[in-house]
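Re: the 407-residue chain
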Amino acid sequence: MKLMKLETLVLLSLIAIVAMLSATAHAQTFSVIHTFTGTGGDGAYPQSGVTLKGSALFGTTQDGGEGGVGGPGTVYQMTHTESGWNYAPIFLFPRNMSGGAGPVARVVFGPDGHLYGTTNYGGAYQGGGVVFYLTPPVSICKTVFCPWKENVIWNFGNGTDGANPGGGDLVWDDQGNIYDTTSAGGTYSSGTFYKMQKVGSVWTEEVRLAFNNTDYESCPAGSPWGGVTYVNGGFYGTGTTGPHGAWAWEVDQFNNLGCLQSFSPGLQAGLTADGSGNLYGASSSGGTNNGGTVFELVNSPFGYTFNVLYNLSGPAGQCGPQANLTLDAAGNLYGTTVCDGANHFGNVFKLTRVGNTWVYTSLYEFTGGSDGEYPISNVSIDSDGTLYGTASSRGANNLGVVWMIKP
């Protein structure tokens, strides 16, 4: 009898917690803080999320800029003031694509304070893409458009050095070296994991691993899209293709590739690590409800243990998350889906750990109207709990939006 009462109390407590979480979600306010126009240097079709620094947001669009819609893309800044958000493009990729084109990853600040990023194509070899950094104007700007200066530090040659960087952030080790992946190129034309090192004033590239998605004998992790995560000297990522599906993988300090977990096709997102070295990720398809999954790889001295945290609901296809998950200080996970959700235009969601279970909350359901649709973006979190991201299309001009969710 006492056991039954205890079980009842636990159940009621869980119900109360879920109800509280749902009430908190409903109290949040969604707003569009910029609608892309594709004119006057404005961008179009953002694929990535935003980077926060102080009261400013920094982001990229894979289209627009020079020449309007159909252009090579932009880097933009949004600054919060008492009157609202001020939007300004800070760099327009040149129409001739010499400085790269089509950025699909965020720009992020490096240890030297410069704003770094990659482009998916363009550059000196047109198709391969570039690694670049931007520096602000050295003098006070007196015009509406104050372009930052671009410095291209690597042009991918569409050969063994890799080609077409994807949607992952650049990451740095403790010595200031840069790491990322390319989705194509390399010895086997299946992408690369590369390192960039600065010697004097010159950056050089080293391919640490060329992926081979036709190798049946080892980990066939080809076409990585979500970049890498650096944890305790090792690098962790995902590959989207291979004869046995997609894979989560690790590369140790000796460049050895290890397989962590196989998936059905649909693993564009990379991995996110917590302070204990556990890894979190998401698949854009599969799962028991068709909408993809959110999963963890639990770190232990004996390796990683795979657990599905939540099965997302959605139509068949690549409608689940395609960007890396975000982990807040309390251990909650945030992400977006591309075309899951009640309206099949995507949503923003949160997973909250309650004991040994995870509680799913949909924070916003896109409608495909002025609020945008099909968010490929990750979620960025401000110090007050405000969430930021982008939707890749629709909005008032059918070119995408930047959105904000206030707690």
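Confidence is low (pLDDT under 50) at residues 1-25.
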